[in-house]
Specification:
Blueprint lengths: L2 E5 L3 H13 L3 E5 L2 H10 L4 E5 L7 H8 L10 E5 L4 H10 L3 E4 L4 H11 L12
Parallel strand pairs: 1-2, 1-3, 3-4, 4-5
Helix pairs in contact: 2-3
Length: 130
C-alpha cells in the first residue's frame, strides 16, 4: 500500500482527502501544518506528498524545498492543491519540483488518478480529461 502524506490546514478539505483515500485504499498521513509533515517524512519516507500552497507557518513551497533535501526524498512526487493556481504560481511550483498543481476546487477522482500514476501503480484507472 502506498503511503501519501498530506498537509492541509482546512479541516473540511482534509476530511475530503481522508474519505477518498479510505475509499481507494490509500494509506494517508494527515497534518494541518508543514512542519509536522516534514518530521513524519524524516521518520518514514512517503511515496507521495500533497501540499496546500498557503498554510500558517511554513508555506507549501517552503515545505517542498525542505522535503526535497531529505535523504531518500530527493525525487519525491509532490502535488500542490491551491486556490491560487495562476499561471505564474503553477510555473514557479513546477520549476521548484512539483509534479502537478491543482486548483481548488479540484476533482477527487483526478487526484486519486494522479496519486496512482505518480506512485507507479500499474492499476491506474483511466480518468477522462486527465
Amino acid at each position: 500500500m502506498k503511503k501519501v502524506l498530506v498537509a492541509e490546514d482546512d479541516f473540511v478539505v482534509s476530511k475530503l482527502y481522508q474519505m477518498h483515500f479510505q475509499r481507494n485504499r490509500i494509506q494517508g498521513g494527515f497534518f494541518n501544518n508543514g512542519a509536522a509533515l516534514i518530521e513524519s517524512a524524516k521518520l518514514e519516507r512517503p511515496d507521495l506528498v500533497i501540499l496546500d500552497y498557503e498554510m500558517p507557518g511554513l508555506s507549501g513551497q517552503e515545505v517542498m524545498c525542505q522535503l526535497l533535501k531529505i535523504p531518500g526524498c530527493e525525487e519525491l512526487p509532490i502535488i500542490f492543491v491551491t486556490g491560487r493556481a495562476t499561471t505564474q504560481v503553477v510555473e514557479h511550483l513546477r520549476e521548484g519540483g512539483a509534479r502537478e498543481v491543482l486548483g481548488k476546487p479540484f476533482s477527487p477522482l483526478h487526484l486519486i488518478h494522479l496519486i496512482h500514476r505518480f506512485t507507479g501503480d500499474p492499476n491506474t484507472p483511466d480518468v477522462p480529461g486527465s
